[in-house]
Design a protein that fits this description.
Blueprint: H1 8-27, H2 38-50, H3 54-57, H4 66-100, E1 103-106, H5 109-114, E2 127-132, H6 137-146, E3 149-154, E4 159-163, E5 181-185, E6 189-191, E7 196-198, H7 200-203, E8 211-212, H8 218-234, H9 240-250, H10 255-264, H11 274-283, H12 290-297, H13 302-310, H14 335-346, H15 350-362, H16 370-373, H17 376-385, H18 391-405
Parallel strand pairs: 1-8, 2-5
Antiparallel strand pairs: 1-2, 3-4, 4-5, 6-7
Helix pairs in contact: 1-2, 2-18, 4-6, 8-9, 8-10, 9-11, 11-13
Length: 407
């Protein structure tokens, strides 16, 4: 039998405290080692794993606590070994795509590594994201089949492929043997929470060649990172790693790059970009030019603009243990959109039901959880009457506490 969890309010408070401390330490290393209890250190490990920053925190001497240092070093070793597998796979993808005449764009983490912003072992990659022209999607899928991948499930954002016969690994944080999935995108877009923002034209190279291609510019990569982060803020799933990615890329952007980015997003279409940049600026001082923030504030809706100034990482991430039944409603830009959002929460669309079923089938942290398979009316009633914990957060907390009890 697994060890019983501490009171959930204690877990929630500890996760939020640890998350803010981790964010401060990552942005400005060298802080005083916290005087935490054994439980608080385990919650810090859970938060670091959930936010994808364990190996990054191992770069400098940092906090001096034996179990903590061992955990970080182990995570860095696992990420470094897995990174080599990913590099080898990208090389095979490049060669196979060239032979097939298919142009692919490795996205986000792969692109950041290619720019040298991270060394091997520093940044975990849960999977490989690839952008392909819609007309080449079938050929790209065939290419992945040739490499030993099979279709797992499809959502409106992407199609997921997994290695044939691969088994998931139960572990806290990163593990060298975790299968490397591939997410195939034909568009770069997010729903915030209903309005679809698309940046495909900005991200896909106009002169794309068969094989792997880079983003057209640093501004295009930044636009994608911001849109991805905005989607996660909207869904209360932001990670500290997202903020770190943006802060590092910001060091490569010139004034001209920022102007290009703002110009592309101008004309009322940049209303969503302020929240992630405000969060970056909160933790990474001087990473975002004040002029950029001031320009984006002009197009951000008043409520979202106000909340953007107040949000902390722990408030818009899995570190807030309670599930938000109406997560993202503050992103609605009109009463009509808010009503549509509420209708969808009460009566999920067929697409939303299929996505939930796919998640239950493929995600370890949802296995055996009756909450996610309960009728929507029961979930709504629970949201209205009591705090409901997030299953993804409880999964990583349990893994951290189980590690503590292992001899």
């Amino acid at each position: 039998m697994p060890d019983p969890l501490p009171p959930l309010r204690t877990v929630r408070a500890g996760l939020r405290r640890a998350t803010e401390a981790l964010a401060a330490e990552l942005a400005r290393p060298g802080g005083v080692t916290p005087d935490w209890s054994p439980l608080e250190w385990r919650l810090a490990m859970a938060a670091a794993a959930a936010h994808g920053v364990s190996p990054l925190l191992d770069r400098s001497p940092g906090w001096q606590h034996a179990d903590w240092r061992h955990f970080l070093a182990s995570q860095r070793e696992h990420v470094e070994q897995r990174h080599q597998r990913i590099v080898d796979l990208l090389c095979r993808l490049d060669a196979t795509a060239r032979d097939a005449g298919v142009a692919l764009v490795p996205l986000k983490g792969a692109a950041l590594h290619a720019l040298g912003l991270y060394a091997p072992g520093e940044r975990p990659m849960a999977d490989i994201d690839l952008l392909v022209h819609p007309g080449d999607a079938r050929r790209a899928a065939s290419l992945l089949h040739e490499l030993g991948y099979e279709a797992s499930f499809a959502q409106w954002k992407h199609q997921v492929f997994k290695p044939a016969c691969a088994a998931p690994v139960h572990a806290l944080g990163e593990h060298r043997d975790t299968p490397v999935n591939i997410e195939l995108h034909t568009h770069i877009h997010e729903r915030l929470p209903l309005a679809t923002v698309e940046l495909s034209a900005m991200v896909y190279p106009h002169d794309a060649q068969p094989g792997l291609n880079a983003y057209p510019s640093h501004a295009a990569l930044m636009g994608h990172l911001l849109l991805h982060a905005a989607g996660n803020v909207c869904g209360r799933s932001l990670r500290l790693l997202h903020l770190n990615d943006i802060s590092l890329l910001a060091t490569r952007l010139t004034r001209r790059d920022w102007n290009v980015l703002c110009d592309v997003l101008a004309g009322g279409s940049s209303w969503w970009a302020l929240p992630p940049l405000c969060l970056v600026a909160r933790y990474y001082r001087h990473a975002v030019p004040d002029a950029v923030l001031a320009r984006l504030e002009q197009e951000c809706p008043p409520l979202l603009r106000t909340l953007s100034r107040r949000w902390t990482l722990s408030a818009v991430s899995c570190s807030d243990l309670w599930l938000h039944g109406l997560a993202g409603i503050e992103w609605c830009r009109s009463p009509g959109e808010a009503m549509h959002y509420l209708h969808n929460r009460l009566r999920p669309t067929d697409e939303a039901r299929r996505e939930r079923a796919d998640m239950v089938r493929t995600q370890l942290w949802l296995q055996g959880q009756s909450w996610v398979t309960s009728p929507q009316r029961r979930r709504v009633l629970a949201w209205l009457t009591r705090p409901v914990p997030r299953m993804d957060t409880l999964y990583v907390v349990r893994a951290a506490l189980a590690q503590a009890s292992t001899p």
